Structures are given as structure tokens and as C-alpha cells.
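Page 42, continued from yesterday. The earlier attempt failed because a stray header line got pasted into the input along with the sequence. Redoing it now with the clean sequence only.
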Amino acid sequence: MKVLAIGDVIGKTGVKRLSSDLPKIIKDKVIDFVIVNGENAGDGFGITDKQYKDILASGADVITMGDHTWGKKDIFGFIDEDTLLRPANLGEKVPGKGYSIFKKNGKKICVISLIGRTFMSVLSNNPFECIDRILKKVEADIIIVDFHAEATAEKIAMARYLDGRVTCIYGTHTHVQTADEKILDKGTGYITDIGMTGPVNSVIGMDIEVSLKRFITSIPERYKYAEGPACINGCIFEINDENCKMEKIERVNL
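This time it went through. C-alpha cells are written below.
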């Protein structure tokens, strides 16, 4: 079983690149299951109905979100779909699902979305307590966690906490792909951040001039996503079909 996780898709530029290249990646790499983080698809903030449908049409099996989950009001029209996951620790009374179970190649795959709390502006519950509650009731052959968090330490701590309890955990949110992919001591696959799918000539996907102005002057100005050629970042997790253990991790950087 090969699972492909695609890093934060940013704006129309990122969605267009994904729609163009994802089908070829799936074919060339013989991918069985695809997870795409789409929380920045809507001009860098949230996701629209069209982008949701375009990402699924490109080959994604499920779309995960993050701190910009509520960035576009369109989301309330499809928030309850199994193919869209908002962070589970936003709260039990919040609309939408924090995890879903999918059947693929005779296996049950559980995908869980979590959000970190360190240096994050969104209010959320303790992700460690939340994942404990989920794992107590989930029955699946493969469990995959998208941990949308800022702090490297928080991501690594979560990975160590879940080692041997989930198949793999990967980080999203920083838009910068890390080179620390590994299989942990108890068999869980891990990488701190899988990167972004969006404009290359940018500051983590955002317009360079606007970003510089914010840093140089400290004057608040709304971010806007950058234009131009886009990259695709992600990670392929290769899982043994017999024992569902992690065998290999391959970064994708196109």
C-alpha cells in the first residue's frame, strides 16, 4: 500500500498544479491512497466549493484542513462530507468530522486531522488528549495522522507519543518541507513537515512584497497568495500489505 500525502495547497496556482500533475504522480508512483491538505486553497485562507471538488477530481481521496478551516463560508455546504476533515480537537460540537475511515485494497484506513496549540492563533483542545479518545474507539488496519502545527517540538513530541500506536504521522502548516523523514523505534513513520503545493517565488506561498512590508514596517496588511510557477511537496508512505507496518518513506519535491 502506497499512501501519498500532499502538503498545503495554496490558492488557484496550487490547485492548478495539483490538478495537472497529481494524476501522473499517482500513475507513475503506483499510489493507492491520496491525502491532500487544502486549508490554504482559497486564496491562501480556507477552501471554496469549487476547489474542494477540483482537488477531489484530481485524485485525492480525502482533504484535511487546519487553522484556516473557516476561512471561506463555502465550507459549511460540504463540511459534513467524509472526504473533508477539520482538526478533531477544534471541539466535539464544531461542525464536521475530525477523522474518517476509508476502505482501500481490502484495508481500513483511518485518517485523523489534528491541530497544534503552540504558536497557533486558533483556539483548540489538547491534541494529545483528543488523539487518545479517538484511538480508543477506532478500528482500522492503517492509521494516518495529519498534525497541523507550527512548533517543531510539538510535532516531534506527538510523534513520540504515538509511536507504535499509529502507522504514520506527518506535519503540515509551515509550508517548508523538512528532511527528517524516518521510521521511529516502534514502527511509526514520521516527518516534521511535508511542505506546500504552491507558488515557488513567494514567502511560504504568499506575495513577496506584501510579506516584506509586514516584516520591515510591522504595519498590518492582509496577505495575498503569490502568482507564478508552483511546486508540489509531499511524502509517500509505503506500508506492508501483510502486517500494515511502515516500510519506506519518500519525500516528493517537484
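Notes: The helical segments are 11-29, 49-57, 127-137, 152-162, 208-217.
Reminder to self: strip header lines before submitting.
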